[in-house]
Design a protein that fits this description.
Blueprint lengths: L1 E6 L8 H15 L3 E9 L5 E5 L2 E12 L2 E3 L3 H7 L4 E5 L5 H12 L3 E4 L8 H18 L4 E4 L2 H10 L8 E2 L6 H5 L10 E5 L8 H14 L4 E5 L5 H10 L6 E4 L6 H9 L3 E4 L8 H8 L3 E5 L13 E4 L4 H13 L12 H16 L2
Helix pairs in contact: 1-12, 2-3, 7-11
Length: 362
C-alpha cells in the first residue's frame, strides 16, 4: 500500500500539523506502509526529493502571493506522478488542499482529508473561514473519509457541512514517546509555570503574564517560562517589563524536532498553562498531561477534552482573577502520584492504517 500525504508544510517548518505528519509517516513506514510526503518549499526553484527517516519527501517550489499565502504550481502534477494507491490531504485551510483534492479526483485516486483546523492571529482570516469552508465543501464531501483530530473539531465540521453525527471519523494526534517516557525531576524550590505556543495574540501568552503578577502576590518567587517563536515576542517582553516581571518571565524556543528537549521543559514545570482562543486538539496540552504536569486551560476549545485527566483545571479565558486563582491552586497542590496513559503516535498510525485499508478494501 502506497500512501501519498500532501501537506502545506513539513519539518523543518514548525507546527502541530507538520509534527503530526512527520510522526505518523515514520510510524506507518515502520509498520510496512510505503509513504511519500508531498509538500511545498518557498523560495526554491527546483523540486527536491530525498529520504528522511525512511519517508520519501518531495518538496515543490511555492510562489509567494501575499502575506503568508503561497501557490505551488507543480503540486498537482506530482499527485499523479507519485502513483499512490491513496492520497491523504493533511490540513484543509491552504491552497494546497483543494489543489491536491482536485488532482486526486482527476487522476481517479481515492483521497481522505484530516482537517487540522487552527486559529489565526489575523481577524480577516478568521472572518473568511466560514466562506472558505463553504467553497471547499464540494471537494471535502468528495473524500472517501473525513478525519477530525478531536470531538470538538468533528462537531464543528459536522455543523459547517450539515453532516449527520458520526459522519466524520475522530483520530487524535498521538503523543510522541519522548513525552510519555521523560523522567520528572524532583520538585523545584520555587514554583514554575510554562506557556507553550506561537507568540501570537490568540495563543494567550499575554493572559498568563498578566495573571502571573497576581500569582506572585500569593506565591512569591513563581516564575514563568514562555516557549515559542512569533511576531509578538517584543510586545510580550514589554508587557512583562510594564508589570515589573522582567526578571520572572523567561522567553525561549525549542526546535520542533527536539521533542526530548520540550518534554524535559514540561516535566520540569509545576504547571503548564494553555490560554489559546482556538485549538482543534492542542497537542501541546496532551504532551503536558503525558509528562505528569498539572495543567490549567482556557475553556472553549478542544483542550476542554483534557478535563477528564487528573490535575487538569478549566477556567474562563476572559476572567483574569479566575485564572490567577486556578494557578495558585494548582501550584499549591503536591505532584501527581501517577501519570495518565494517553494515545501515542503509534496508536494514531495504526488507526490510520486501518482506515486506509478500509477505503482500499485490502
Amino acid at each position: 500500500m502506497h500512501v501519498l500525504m500532501v501537506t502545506a508544510r513539513y519539518p523543518p517548518f514548525v507546527g502541530g500539523t507538520e509534527s503530526h505528519v512527520a510522526d505518523v509517516s515514520q510510524r506507518l513506514t515502520g509498520m510496512g506502509t510505503k509513504v511519500t510526503v508531498l509538500t511545498t518549499s518557498p523560495g526554491v526553484s527546483l523540486v527536491d526529493e530525498r529520504n528522511e527517516e525512511g519517508v520519501t519527501v518531495v518538496r515543490v517550489p511555492a510562489r509567494h502571493l501575499w502575506n503568508d499565502v503561497y501557490f505551488a504550481r507543480l503540486l498537482t502534477k506530482h499527485v499523479s506522478t507519485c502513483n499512490p494507491d491513496l492520497v491523504h490531504v493533511q490540513g484543509y485551510h491552504t491552497f494546497v488542499a483543494p489543489m491536491a483534492m482536485w488532482a486526486a479526483r482527476r487522476a481517479g485516486i481515492p483521497y481522505v482529508v484530516t482537517f487540522h483546523s487552527g486559529g489565526h492571529d489575523s481577524r480577516l482570516r478568521r472572518m473568511v473561514r466560514p466562506a472558505q469552508r463553504r467553497w471547499l465543501r464540494r471537494w471535502l464531501t468528495g473524500a472517501e473519509r473525513l478525519i477530525a483530530v478531536s470531538n470538538f473539531e468533528r462537531k464543528s465540521f459536522e455543523r459547517s457541512f450539515h453532516l449527520a453525527p458520526g459522519s466524520i471519523a475522530v483520530i487524535p494526534t498521538g503523543v510522541a514517546d519522548a513525552f510519555i517516557e521523560v523522567d520528572r525531576p524532583p520538585p523545584a524550590d520555587l514554583p514554575s509555570l510554562i506557556s507553550i505556543g506561537r507568540l501570537v495574540d490568540y495563543k494567550g501568552h499575554h493572559l498568563v503574564i498578566e495573571a502571573l503578577a497576581d500569582v506572585r502576590r500569593s506565591l512569591p518567587g513563581t516564575r514563568l517560562r514562555v516557549i515559542g517563536n512569533g511576531g509578538d515576542r517584543a510586545a510580550l517582553k514589554a508587557l512583562a517589563a510594564r508589570l515589573g516581571l522582567s526578571e520572572a518571565v523567561d522567553f525561549s524556543y525549542v526546535p520542533a524536532a527536539d521533542r526530548a528537549g520540550l518534554a524535559r521543559e514540561l516535566a520540569a514545570s509545576s504547571v503548564a498553562v494553555f490560554m489559546s482562543s482556538y485549538e482543534s486538539q492542542g497537542i501541546a496540552g496532551y504532551e503536558a498531561v503525558a509528562t505528569g504536569a498539572r495543567v490549567v486551560i482556557g475553556s472553549g476549545t478542544a483542550l476542554d477534552e483534557l478535563e477528564c485527566y487528573p490535575g487538569v483545571e478549566l477556567v474562563d479565558r476572559d476572567d483574569r482573577h479566575a485564572l490567577s486563582r486556578a494557578l495558585v491552586r494548582q501550584l499549591s497542590e503536591p505532584p501527581l502520584l501517577s501519570r495518565p496513559a494517553l494515545p501515542s503516535t503509534l496508536t494514531t498510525a495504526a488507526r490510520l492504517e486501518a482506515l486506509y485499508r478500509d477505503v482500499l478494501a485490502v
